[in-house]
Design a protein that fits this description.
Layout: E1 3-19, E2 25-45, E3 50-53, H1 65-77, E4 82-88, H2 99-114, H3 121-129, H4 135-140, E5 144-147, E6 152-155, E7 162-166, H5 174-178, H6 192-200, H7 214-220, H8 222-231, E8 238-239, E9 246-250, H9 253-260, E10 269-275
Parallel strand pairs: 3-4
Antiparallel strand pairs: 1-2, 2-4, 2-5, 2-10, 5-6, 7-9, 7-10, 8-9
Helix pairs in contact: 1-2, 7-8
Length: 285
């Protein structure tokens, strides 16, 4: 394989349950992968160079998560090999679908195999956390209930679903959302029994589960509010991550596609199935 998938994710719910002394927020969420996402072409080099081809416009190379992931893994393992990396970008930036984090995780997983490093999943997750709080779940490789800043992961099995995902053309700043004075930070922690009950319904149809960031973002971005209102006519609509993308679950793909076909022309998006395993789950031990 020379082209490696970097799947999108949804936060089926996202609760802010506290704040650490260092300013990081304590979260509880369920991550679920989708059968759509970015792709990366990765080829090893013998000269040790990390070469990023077709870099993202406006993103300096030193800030690019793909390059940072490769350099971090190279330094951590003292590997003398390099890589040519080309990102095929399909997911919107700043959309809450985990695109950059997923790209970084795919680089770590692919190079773990291409460089014959044989590093463990736990070791790669720890490296991924240095790049961003959402990176470890993509290395963990399965639908997960996450706690802490998003790094404490345990398996979760929500009901199967297809999703309509709408992608408003706005970029939401995650730090700005988490620093907003209107954000509540005291949602009670989810107990095991409600978590199990929620999984059976895909964490919808129950007021206990929500996205605590949604009201803050929709108040600041009319495009997000509009997408929530329109999609809410056909199902329970919710924002993923810190936005701007919103989604709603449906029993099957046909039902989701029927709703998606009715959207106004200016509402962009896609239909995707939820998947419970990362396609590169076998790339870490």
């Amino acid at each position: 394989m020379t082209r490696y998938p970097a799947p999108a994710k949804l936060n089926l719910f996202l609760h802010v349950v506290g704040r650490r002394a260092d300013g990081y927020h304590l979260l509880e969420t369920v991550f679920r992968f989708l059968d759509v996402g970015d792709e990366l072409e990765i080829t090893p080099r013998v000269d040790g160079a990390i070469c990023l081809h077709a870099p993202l416009p406006g993103v300096p190379p030193e800030q690019d998560l793909c390059a940072r992931a490769a350099i971090l893994l190279q330094a951590h393992t003292r590997c003398r090999l390099g890589a040519d990396i080309r990102l095929i970008k399909r997911l919107p930036l700043g959309g809450g679908l985990g695109g950059g984090s997923s790209d970084a995780a795919t680089v770590l997983l692919a190079l773990n195999r291409l460089w014959s490093l044989h590093r463990s999943r736990a070791e790669l997750q720890a490296l991924g956390l240095k790049l961003g709080a959402d990176v470890p779940v993509f290395i963990y490789g399965q639908t997960a209930f996450a706690q802490g800043v998003g790094e404490a992961l345990s398996p979760c099995a929500p009901a199967p679903a297809a999703y309509v995902v709408l992608t408003p053309r706005v970029h939401v700043s995650t730090p700005a959302v988490f620093s907003h004075p209107g954000l509540t930070r005291d949602t009670p922690s989810v107990k095991i029994a409600p978590l199990s009950d929620g999984a059976r319904t895909g964490f919808f149809g129950n007021d206990r589960f929500r996205n605590d960031l949604q009201s803050v973002v929709s108040a600041q971005f009319p495009e997000v509010a509009e997408a929530l209102v329109w999609l809410g006519r056909y199902g329970e609509a919710r924002m993923t991550g810190s936005g701007a993308c919103v989604f709603a679950p449906f029993a099957d793909r046909a039902a989701a596609e029927a709703v998606f076909r009715q959207r106004p022309e200016h509402l962009n998006g896609f239909v995707a199935d939820g998947v419970d395993q990362h396609p590169l789950i076998d790339y870490a031990g």
